[in-house]
Amino acid sequence: MKKPDVVPESERVSASPATPVLAEPLRRVSRLSAAAAISIGLLVLAGWLFDYRFLMQVLPGQVAMVPNTALGFLLAGLALWLRAGSAGRSRVSASRAAAALAGLLGLLNLVEYVSGRSLGIDELLFRDPTGLTSVLPGRMAVLTAVGFVALAAALLTLDLRRAPWTRDGLALLPGILAMVSLTGYAFGLGSLSWIGVYKGMAIHTALGFLVLTVGVLSAHSRGLSRLFVSDTAGGVLARRIFPVALLAPVLLGWLRIAGEQLGLYGPEFGGALQAVSDAIILTVVLLGTAAALMRVDEKRRSSEEALRIAEEQYRLLFESSPLPMWVVDRDTLRYLAANDAAVGHYGYSRDEFLSMHIGQIRPAEDVAAVKLAIPKETAGIEKLGVWRHLKKDGTLINVEIATHVLTWAGRSAWLVLAYDVTDRLRAEEELAKRELYFRSLIEHSLDIVAVIGPAGELRYASPSGERILGYPRADLPGLNALDLVHPDDRPLAEGKFRRSLETGTKFEQLEARLRHRNGSWRTLSVVGGPLPPGIGMRGLIINARDLTDRLQLEAQLRVSQKMEGIGRLAGGIAHDFNNLLTAILGYSELMEAQLPDDEDLRSSLSEIHLAGERAAALTRQLLAFSRRQVLQPRLLDLNAVVSEVEKLLRRLIGEDVELVTRLDPASGTVKADPGQLEQVLMNLAVNARDAMPEGGTLTIETANTRLDAGFTAANPGAQSGEFTILTVSDTGIGMSDEVRSHAFEPFFTTKEQGKGTGLGLATAYGIVKQSDGYITVDSEPGRGAKFRIYFPRAVGEAAASGLGERPPLSPRGTETILLVEDESGVRRLSRTILEAQGYTVLEAASGEEALEIARSHTGEIHLVATDVVMPGMSGRVLWDRLRVLRPGPRILFMSGYTDDAIARHGVLDPGIAFLQKPFTPFGLAHKVREVLDAEDRA
Whose C-alpha in 348, 635, 774, 886 is 20 to 30 A from the C-alpha of 546? Predict the structure, then answer.
């Protein structure tokens, strides 16, 4: 609440309600009086300085004002001017100093008169060689000195709050002395202004004292000034009678004497004329005063009636107010009145309220705080905020309190108004809870919730905006959302936004690419609509969901499904194709071995055999990328594998490519098929060689690492944990983002027609995945490529890889072998190969036939070589039944099917020998001998 302006004590009128404060008029009177006194002093000093006698004497032959008197008026006038100005401690101090100097000047002159000695102040400013100042040159008159002492005392005691009449008496003394002197001049009685032989007061000295007296009396708001400015009956009487009583006798007496001196009438007529004039003036003054008093009385009665009506209206408003209101005693804090609303709302009767104090409708813990919050101001409305009140039934409510100071039945009291805000606060609390609830939904949403203006400017963005787009949350408001949209998508986005604003309808789902802070593009699905009209501003509220990862996963899924489909196709034809290749390769090898070296057909057979091997290699690659080939994994030292393959790779990449290996001695053990791992390295090396047509550097590195959640999040399908990295990098031409995204797809190649099958990287990808590993590629055009292969670290001691080893020529044998094969061509070829090696072969086309041979054969059967997947009875079921009939034979399974088909028959269990089709005569003979010579039986 605004506090009232502070009024200086000298300008404040302590009046009753009927006495208005008239500080400004009093201030103006004081300042005018001060200006007049200062002017008198300056003019007289100028007369002494420039010898202008009319300024010193006023009239020839009259008493002149001495320089010290002029100086006294200058100081007294300055003191009064400073006190009548704006309030300020420095101005008050300066006023007191000037008043003290004026008083000191008068006091020193009085000391000179009393002591009869000259203190040297008579000619302080000027000498009086001509004797203008009569018998005592330059000395201030006695009455003048007394006047300055009295005026100085009055000015110095202006701030005293007690005995205001003391100041008025001191201020009136020089005025009375001045009036006596002026009367003496008017009636020609020098004795009224002279004291014995001491000179009297000059005419302009008397006038100066009169104006100073009026100014000092007006410089404070108590005493005579209060009487003269009051609009009460006493004030009216003082303003009307005092001037007449002061001036009329003097003026009439002067006129009587002047008429008699001029011979206009005699003393008797003059006396009668003065009496009649006195009667007329007195009658006029009394009648005018009576009329003024009548108006004051009528005004008082009118004010009392207006006050009575106002009180009635106030009481009516008080009683009829719908809000609880009380009148509270400021001293006792007890209720003096209570309106009907307070009685009805709180449940107390009016008499109960009048026997209570304000603390009794408040919780006990609030009483101390209430007493501290009691307003100290005495004017205006004071709002005390929200407090808790107790109804009679114990209900606790919240109320807003406002107070106003008033006088009630002669007591200082507060008018207290209480507005029940319980429901409002409860609604605000509920609204705050709901706002917090919905804010939490927005703040924790995985989607971006944003508000954009008509021009696309972002006004708000939820925290997900920072996570999805990379911009700090504080930087998002102010950005233009349309500037973040990909140029190809912007026209569509602008169109949807504009139509939504124009039609006031929601817009359908929009997929758009938005620029990430790092410059990449994120694909977002955006829906939204215009802000509700009640919000007061135009714009759109949108919800944007990040689809980037999902789209990437979908793309990876499509690639995976495509590779899975090709894998299923390859697996479906593998068996028949491998059987055909087995016959082609086997018979061509047998025929080639039987032909003379100079036979013309030998070269043709060689081409047939070479074509069969290429077809078999192609089949293996198809099965490898589809992860359907049969692996024989074991614990391997990755460094040893790289070292064993290094010589082969150097021959493979050529002399213009430098091979560098950096093998970490602490790299861990991995579990993989050494032959397939060799295939991976060879495929990557060939790919790197082709990327460096003018030579370069091929680097192979090994190291240990730990994949964390961040890596797995960025690379779907990967798992966290301890891994060993095999890194193959080159300094070749590199790959674009488009090429890199298709690098591991089968039959995808950037090489010329006939120079690549597109299965090299796909084969490596399939082998790594089948070994529970993960492969990534980093590449940029012109900056080479870096392949990282992550193998899970295995526990155990690594075995020798066996890479580069070539088996010795298979020894011949004489054992009996039961050959079970449903494909006649493969069966005949296998029998031919085995019999050529010296084995006795019992041939069967099915499982049932094999069981019958086992029952009927009288000799020993040393080995059963059976196909896995056959019509009717599988190879595994056959073996389980044969072991019951003949526990002695060993088992060798053969198949052209993929590993999942074989695994379903239990063939890939540990300790069971397996031969993958297509096989060569050498491979079959060697595998048979290996199984027969093994120490442990299956």
Answer: 774
